[in-house]
């Protein structure tokens, strides 16, 4: 029937206008965006600047929030305005109609004189300028008086007057003139006027007892009230719109300033990352140069050892051989009394010759340039077994054939020194030489079954030489870019392991 209703107990009048616009817009907003272009829109938004993204999001959020606030404020103002006007009109009409309905305590209709008097007052007084229709209802829903005489003595549902029958002033604001329901027959006359109205239902009481004997309904023009409400709405929306725009602009400038700072930091960070990458590249190049220099040093050191071995073999060894030869000649020409002395000299010379040859044999590296790493390790094990008359357990996996010469020599020297330590300090027990290559990691290991390396401070020269040999092996391996690992425990033997990335 009407679009807005409110009820107020006794002297208070409430007006409620159910505004569906906000709800419908919210539902439309939720249903919108679920289409196939949603992902494309999201991708476009992500490519915008932070400040632009913020403005879009802030506009949507603040727009919805301020729309709700504006509707709430304007609705509250409208309610208060209508409430005041309705309450004033209700009090006036109660005082106007109650004297004419006192006879309804015993009768079910108004006398003709009373009806004519009411008609005359409504048409001749100032009420006619703003009150367009008046009805008086009995509690059973029968209209006993109406400006539209076609509805008199007709009974209608009591839903509308039920609030007034409980003692409340009931108000309906009708600004939707286009809606007309079939069952709104009692309002046909008022709707035919085609002007905004608000209707008020007020209880009419019996004098003295206060008993409700009828309900007065009157329709008052709402044109002036509607203009006032519209003006208030415009002012509210102007204030809300200005405040929203100001907040969005203020927040935009704040976010834009922060966005510029973030971009400056991003630029500085990118520059630092590029600089760090460049420094890392330079460090890697320097590391390669250091590794190359270490390998070159290892090659030069090997050449030096070869020269020393050759010098020992061609120099002192030859001299000792000559001494032995002359001693043999002296023995054949001298007397018997010098035989023992000569024999002692000969034995000393022979021992010196053997020692020098042993040293030169250890210093002189066999030619491994044309051998693979596998063949070089096999040759090393054979020579160690031949020289020490011990056994070496050889376990070699498939090894790469393109190992650099400097690395191959370094591995050979590492394994040679480790086998020598196993022979000297473990008596050659449990000697084992193994090598493997997997996922770019080359590993060579030498182990024995001796008493292990003591963690105590060495007290004999042999221990000192052992520690010096370990230091030399570690330096040789690490100078080639490898990792040296020594594992030993008392009575559990020793393992020396070298790892290289190739």
TrEMBL record:
Instruction: Enumerate the spans annotated as Signal transduction histidine kinase subgroup 3 dimerisation and phosphoacceptor domain.
Output: 306-366
- Tell me the domain of life: Bacteria
Instruction: Show where the Histidine kinase/HSP90-like ATPase domain sits.
Output: 409-500
Q: Where is the signal peptide?
A: none
Membrane spanning stretches: 54-73, 236-255
Q: Which UniProt keywords apply?
A: ATP-binding, Kinase, Membrane, Nucleotide-binding, Phosphoprotein, Transferase, Transmembrane, Transmembrane helix, Two-component regulatory system
EC numbers on record: 2.7.13.3
Q: Which SUPFAM superfamilies match?
A: ATPase domain of HSP90 chaperone/DNA topoisomerase II/histidine kinase
| Pfam families (UniProt xref) | HATPase_c (PF02518), HisKA_3 (PF07730)
**Has keyword ATP-binding?**
yes
Reaction(s) catalyzed by this protein? ATP + protein L-histidine = ADP + protein N-phospho-L-histidine
GO CC, alphabetical: membrane
Which top-level enzyme class is recorded in the Swiss-Prot or TrEMBL entry? transferase
Please name the GO terms that the record assigns under molecular function: ATP binding; phosphorelay sensor kinase activity; protein dimerization activity
User: What CDD domains does the database record attribute to this sequence?
Assistant: HATPase_UhpB-NarQ-NarX-like (cd16917)
Stored PANTHER family: NITRATE/NITRITE SENSOR PROTEIN NARX-RELATED, NITRATE_NITRITE SENSOR PROTEIN NARQ
Q: In its UniProt entry, what is this protein called?
A: histidine kinase
Q: Which organism is it from?
A: Pseudomonas laurylsulfatiphila
The taxonomy runs: Bacteria, Pseudomonadati, Pseudomonadota, Gammaproteobacteria, Pseudomonadales
């Amino acid at each position: 029937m009407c679009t807005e209703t409110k009820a107020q107990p006794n002297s208070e009048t409430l007006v409620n206008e159910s505004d569906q616009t906000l709800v419908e817009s919210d539902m439309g907003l939720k249903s919108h965006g679920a289409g196939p272009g949603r992902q494309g829109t999201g991708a476009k938004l992500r490519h915008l600047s932070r400040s632009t993204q913020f403005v879009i999001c802030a506009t949507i959020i603040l727009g919805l929030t301020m729309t709700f606030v504006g509707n709430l404020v304007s609705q509250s103002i409208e309610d208060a305005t209508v409430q005041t006007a309705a309450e004033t009109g209700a009090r006036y009409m109660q005082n106007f109609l109650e004297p004419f309905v006192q006879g309804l305590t015993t009768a079910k209709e108004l006398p003709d004189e009373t009806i004519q008097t009411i008609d005359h007052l409504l048409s001749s007084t100032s009420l006619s300028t703003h009150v367009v229709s008046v009805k008086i209802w009995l509690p059973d829903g029968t209209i006993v008086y109406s400006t539209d005489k076609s509805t008199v003595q007709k009974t209608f549902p009591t839903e509308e007057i039920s609030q007034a029958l409980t003692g409340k002033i009931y108000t309906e604001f009708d600004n939707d003139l286009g809606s007309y329901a079939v069952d709104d027959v009692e309002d046909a006359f008022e709707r035919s006027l085609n002007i905004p109205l608000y209707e008020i239902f007020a209880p009419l009481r019996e004098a003295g007892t206060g008993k409700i004997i009828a309900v007065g309904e009157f329709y008052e023009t709402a044109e002036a009230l509607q203009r006032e409400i519209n003006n208030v709405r415009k002012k509210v929306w102007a204030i809300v719109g200005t405040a929203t725009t100001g907040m969005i602009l203020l927040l935009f400038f704040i976010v834009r300033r922060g966005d510029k700072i973030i971009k400056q930091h991003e630029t500085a960070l990118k520059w630092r990352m590029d600089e760090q990458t460049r420094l890392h590249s330079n460090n890697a190049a320097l590391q390669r140069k250091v590794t190359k220099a270490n390998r070159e040093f290892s090659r030069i050191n090997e050449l030096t050892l070869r020269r020393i071995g050759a010098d020992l073999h061609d120099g002192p060894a030859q001299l000792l051989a000559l001494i032995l030869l002359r001693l043999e000649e002296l023995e054949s020409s001298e007397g018997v009394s010098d035989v023992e002395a000569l024999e002692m000299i000969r034995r000393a010379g022979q021992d010196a010759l053997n020692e020098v040859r042993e040293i030169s044999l250890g210093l002189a590296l066999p030619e491994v340039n044309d051998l693979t790493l596998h063949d070089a390790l096999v040759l090393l094990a054979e020579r160690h077994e031949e020289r020490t008359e011990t056994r070496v357990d050889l376990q070699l996996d498939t090894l790469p054939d393109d190992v650099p010469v400097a690395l191959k020599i370094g591995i050979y020297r590492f394994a040679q020194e480790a086998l020598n330590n196993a022979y000297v300090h473990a008596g050659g027990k449990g000697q084992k030489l193994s090598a493997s290559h997997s996922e770019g990691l080359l590993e060579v290991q030498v182990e024995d079954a001796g008493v292990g390396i003591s963690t105590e401070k060495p007290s004999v020269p042999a221990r000192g030489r052992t520690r010096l040999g370990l230091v030399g092996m570690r330096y040789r391996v690490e100078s080639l870019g490898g990792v040296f690992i020594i594992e030993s425990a008392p009575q559990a033997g020793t393992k020396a392991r070298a790892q290289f990335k190739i």
